[in-house]
Amino acid sequence: MLSSGRWVMNGGRTAVLARTFCYKTIKRPQYKDAPQKKPMREFPEENFSLAKQISARIQATGPITLATYMKEILTNPSGGYYMSKDVFGKEGDFITSPEVGQIFGELVAVWILTEWQKIGSPKPIQLVELGPGRGTLTQDILRVLSQLDLSSPDLSVHLVEISPYMCQAQANRLCLSHNEVTDPESKHHYAGEMVSGVQVFWYKRLEDVPRNFSVIYAHEFFDALPIHKLERQDNVWKEILVDIDPDKKEAFRFLVSRGETPASKVFSQLSGDFSDKRDHIEFSLDTFSVINHIAERLEEDGGFSLIMDYGHLGDKTDTFRAFRQHKLQDPLENPGQADLTADVDFKQLTFMAEKTQKVITYGPIAQADFLKNMEGDARLQVLLENARPDQKKDLETGYDLLTHPDKMGQRFKFFALFPTVLQKILQKLPPSGFSSQQ
C-alpha cells in the first residue's frame, strides 16, 4: 500500500525486480545477501535512550521545536534512526523508487545526459547526490553514463551522507576499493575508487563538495529534513513545540507556543511575498538553506539540479508522520526507532529557489508524467523483449508501481533547477521530461 508518500510493503511482500546493464535483464541479489567487498564496521547497540536525552534537554531549556526533535531522532550520533543500520527495502521501514526497478535510474541518467549534452558536455563533471540511500540510483546512473566512456578525471562522484553505516554500504556497492579518511583537514571523510577508475568521495555537508560543474540530484532527501510546524492564531504565526507529557513516563506531547518564535518570525517575514491562505504550515529552514546553496553553486560553478520527492503544491497542512516496519506510527513514540518524514511543499521550494534570482525552475510534475515523457513505456518494452519469462511480470509490476496514479505515479514529484545564464538555451530547448512536447 502507499501511505502518505512513503512506499510501504503490502503484507511484507514485494517483487524482487530484475535490473540490466544494457538491454538484457539481470537479477541483482537482495541487498542483505549481496557479497561484501569489505567487512561492514560493527555498530553495537548501546545502552542509550534518545527519549531520556530529549527529556533532559526539555527539562533544562523548555519545550523544543519539532525541527530540533526531528534532527535528534534522525541523526543523533549515538542513537539516530539513520546512523547505524539499513532502513530501506523489505527488511527496513520503506522502499524507494530506485529500489523498485532499473527503469527509474536509467531514465534519470538519460535526463542528465541529455541536459549535459545540450549545454556542450562540459568537463570535468561532478555527480553529486544528496542522501544516496543504498547507492542504487547513482549505480544505475553510472551504468548508463559508462556507455560514453567517461572516466576519471573527467567524471567524479560526490555523495553527501551523514550515516557512517550507509557510507560503507554505498561504498561496498559502488567501489572496488574504499577507506575511511582520517586526515582532519580533509573535507571528505570517506573515499573509494570504482572498477572504471572513477573516484568516489563522501561528505557530511554539501558545502564541502568541491566547487566545480556539478549535476546535483536528490531522491527522498528533502522529506527527511527537519521541519517547523506553524499555526496561525489571530493573524500571528505561532509554533507547534514538543514538550514532556506529564501523564506518561518518558513520553512527549505537542503544544502551541505562547507567542512568536524565531522560526515563525522568519516565516512571517517571507510570507509578505509568499501568499498562503493556510492556517497550518510546515516550514523547513534547512530546506531553504540547501536550496540557497544549490542556487549559488549553479550560478557560480555551473551545472543543474534534479529533485525527486513526494510532496504537494502548497495545498496540504499536517503531513508529519512516522514509519516503522512499513506501518504508520505515532511520531512521538519510540524515538529513534522509526523514520520521521513530511511531504515536501513544492510551492515553498519554488518560491525560495526563484527568490534567489540565480536559478530558473521547472516543475514540479508528477513522477508518472516525467517517466512517460522520458519514453519510459518504450524502455519497458525493450526490457520485456529481452527478458526471461519469469522476469517479465516483475518488470511490468515495478513500472506500474512507479507510474500508476494511485501508487507512486502522482504522489512523487520531479523538480529541476538551472542557472539563469541558461535561460535563452532552455527557451529554445526546454528540459527533457518536463513537457510531453519533446
Describe this structure in words.
The model is unreliable at 6-24, 26-35 and 42-47 (pLDDT under 50). The chain has helices at 50-61, 66-75, 97-100, 102-118, 136-145, 164-174, 262-270, 285-301, 346-355, 367-373, 376-386, 389-403, 408-411, 423-428, and strands at 2-3, 6-7, 18-20, 25-27, 64-65, 125-130, 155-160, 177-180, 190-193, 199-203, 214-219, 228-233, 236-244, 252-256, 280-283, 303-312, 321-324, 327-329, 339-341, 344-345, 359-366, 412-419. The strands form five sheets. Strands 6, 7, 8, 9, 10, 11, 16, 20, 21 and 22 form a ten-stranded mixed beta sheet that branches. Strands 5, 12, 13, 14 and 15 form a five-stranded antiparallel beta sheet that branches. 33% of the residues lie in helices and 24% in strands. The chain has 438 residues and is an alpha+beta fold. β12 (228-233) and β13 form a beta hairpin.
